[in-house]
Structures are given as C-alpha cells and as structure tokens.
UniProtKB/TrEMBL annotation:
Protein name: TIGR00297 family protein
GO CC terms in record: membrane
Keywords: Membrane, Transmembrane, Transmembrane helix
Keyword Protein biosynthesis carried by entry: no
Protein source organism: Methanorbis furvi
Length: 396
C-alpha cells in the first residue's frame, strides 16, 4: 500500500485532476467490492471526487493518504522498539513533507497541523471501523482550510510553538491531567494560538488548563463520595478542550488575520467563561446545598443547573484571574478585561441555565453545554465591546 500511494503521489501532479479523480474513483469501487474495505474505499473515492472537481488541492488529496499509510507502515516496522504513536507520527511527518515538497506546495504550518489533527483523530477513534475514513477526510479538510487562510507566519515562532506545546502536553500527560486525545487537542490549539496570535495568548489558555486541572483535584475524594468527580480520575480529553477553548481559538485566528480588537473580546469572553465555569463547578460543588438556578429550590450536589454562593464567588475569581493575566500580558486593554470579567460571569450562569433547561432533558451532554456557554460568553463580550465603542464614539 505505501508504494501504491507513493506512485499515485508521483503521477497525480502530472495528469489532469479529472483523469486522476476518475481513475482513483474506479479503483476505489474495485477496492470496495473485492477487499471489503468499505470505509477506506469510500474516503479515497470522496477525496478523488473533491480533487477532480477542483475543490481541494493536490496536497489535500494525496497528503492524508501518504500520512496514513506511511505512518502505519513505520509503526508496524518499529513495533516493540518505539512507542506506536511516536512511530506513526514520524511516518506521517515524512509522508506529508515529501508530498508537499514534490507537489511544490510546502507549508510547514499546514503540514504540522494536519499531522496533529490526524494523530488526534487516531487517538479518539481507536478500534473503530471508520477510523481511516474520518482520519483521511478530517486531515484533508484541515489542509484545505489552512491553505485557504494563506496566513503569513514566522517559521521560528512556529518551531517554538511546536516545541513548547509538545513539551507542555507531554508533562500534562505524565501528570495524568489529560488523556491521549487531550494531548493532541492541546498541541493543536497551542500551535494555532502561538502562530496566529502570539505566546501571551497561549499562556492565557494554558492558565485555564492549569487552573482547571488543579481544581479538578481539589477535594477530589469528597467529589468521588458525592459522585460528581471528573471522569478518568480527573483526566480531561479532547471533548473538554474543544468545548472550552474552540471559540477562543477561533477568536485568536480571526484576530491574527484581521487585527480587530473585537476578536480579543471574543477570545477573552470565551476563556474567562471556561475558567469561571470550571472553578464554579469544581469549587462550588463542595460549597453546601446547591439551588436550581431556575427555581431556587434545593437540589442534590452535581445537579445540572444547581448553583451555590461559593460557586458564584469562585466563578468571579476565575474570570478575574484570566482577565487580570490578559491585562498583565498586554493581550487586552483594561476595558476589554472588565468586559471579559462580566462575560465570564454571564457565560457561567448561561451554562447553569442550559444545564437546567436543556441538558437535564438529555438533549445535549456536558460538553455541548460548555460549548454553548463559552460561545455565549464570547458573543456577550463582542456585543459589550461594540456597545462600549459606539457609546464612547458618540461622546468623544
């Protein structure tokens, strides 16, 4: 398989995409029929179709296949000698690097992010039959998206981002605060933050994860007794990372591209909400009898929508810490930091409302609630920033 995919890489740039796409789709049909490798055949056919109609570049067509087949090939060769994930990563890096250089579309940022996304999906989808399909399509869409952004970056800063994020994720994994999927999600977000916005933005998000990990362990035995502890002995995974930081990372990307302050507000409102909500949950659950936010009636500890006075105070503390750090690191001016504190408080209580009204009915899970809460905190901060700018402009 590695040789077949490599041969495809060598000939694809030399032939019209329509022809390559048609031939590969035909081969995928044969693969689907004879070898019963349904998911792999479907994903390759989809990539061939998208490449043939010009929707994705040649690197997004060939690169994911090169990453996957050479990653698995190297992992099998080095079995029992090198950790599987490390061997797969080495093969994937080699596969995408060779593809990009041969196709004359070399972009280190795109390649590194594609590898991290593939590693993250591989760790999430272990033992699933459709893992290859999701991995191929996910990394292909990642390559296409970041090529289209056409962002100019400093390669030295990118190298620093990779080293710092990999180091932090390694120690977080060894400390048992994140699982494997959480490691790759953290590396992905960290590289994007440092490259698009700068190290201070990364430090703010890292502060959230450190605070969250620390307070997850806070009075952990008591939380276990109450049945409200974080899963996996307090380890957090990719769902936690995406639910709490995805909106903020999007804000960082938008700020890096546009330089508009409103996206600082989006970023800070999101991360302030995530931190405030985490501290409210992890500290507030030990603060006595909670009361349902919609009825103010007593409810058991850990009930979605339940709030305590201690939790509300912890919420404000978390928002103040994050926004104060943003001010000290010169990420945001004082007025955006004030907005961020308010947004963190608002977003946390929106989290409680969503928990009471929607999550308790089983419509969404905890991660969905967190995502909506951080989105609400970010959007509130953007709206408050717009109002503040509009009002100040009318007076001055």
């Amino acid at each position: 398989m590695p040789l077949v995919v490599t041969l495809l890489m060598l000939v694809a740039p030399l032939i019209h995409p329509y022809i390559v796409g048609a031939v590969v789709i035909l081969l995928s049909v044969i693969l689907y029929t004879i070898h019963k490798t349904h998911y792999l055949a479907i994903s390759v056919a989809v990539l061939a179709l998208l490449y043939g109609i010009g929707f994705i570049p040649v690197t997004a067509f060939i690169g994911p296949m090169m990453m996957m087949v050479w990653g698995e090939f190297i992992a099998r060769i080095l079995n029992n000698h090198v950790p599987d994930t490390l061997a797969f990563a080495a093969g994937s890096v080699a596969g995408i690097a060779v593809t990009m250089m041969y196709c004359q579309q070399l972009d280190w940022l795109v390649g590194i992010i594609a590898v991290v996304v593939l590693l993250m999906l591989r760790s999430i989808l272990t033992n699933r039959e459709d893992a290859s399909m999701i991995g191929l399509l996910g990394s292909a869409m990642t390559i296409t998206l970041f090529y289209d952004l056409d962002f100019t970056y400093d390669t030295t800063m990118l190298a620093l981002a990779v080293a710092v994020c990999a180091g932090f994720a390694y120690f977080a994994y060894r400390a048992k605060t994140v699982d494997a999927s959480g490691v790759f999600a953290a590396v992905l977000f960290g590289i994007i933050l440092i490259t698009f916005a700068g190290v201070p933005w990364f430090l703010i998000v890292i502060s959230f994860f450190i605070l969250g990990s620390f307070f997850t362990k806070y009075r952990y035995a008591e939380k276990v007794f109450l049945g409200v502890e974080q899963g996996k002995s307090g380890r957090r995974g990719y769902m936690n990372a995406f639910a709490n930081a995805l909106v903020g990372v999007a804000g960082a990307i938008l700020f890096g591209i546009t330089g508009n302050e409103v996206f600082i507000a989006l970023f800070l409102g999101c991360i302030a909400t995530a931190t405030a909500d985490t501290l409210a949950s992890e500290i507030g659950v030990t603060g006595g009898t909670p009361y349902m936010i919609t009825t103010l009636k007593p409810v058991p500890a850990g009930t979605n929508g339940g709030v305590t006075v201690l939790g509300e105070l912890a919420c404000l503390l978390g928002a103040v810490i994050i926004c104060g750090l943003a001010f000290l690191l010169e990420v945001a001016p004082w007025y955006i930091c004030v907005i961020g504190v308010i947004a963190g408080f608002v977003g946390t209580n929106v989290d409680s409302l969503i928990g009471a009204l929607i999550e308790n009915k089983g419509v969404i899970g905890n991660s969905g609630t967190n995502l909506l809460a951080t989105l609400s905190g970010g959007l509130f901060a953007m709206a408050a920033y717009w109002v503040a700018v509009t009002v100040s402009a009318s007076f001055f």
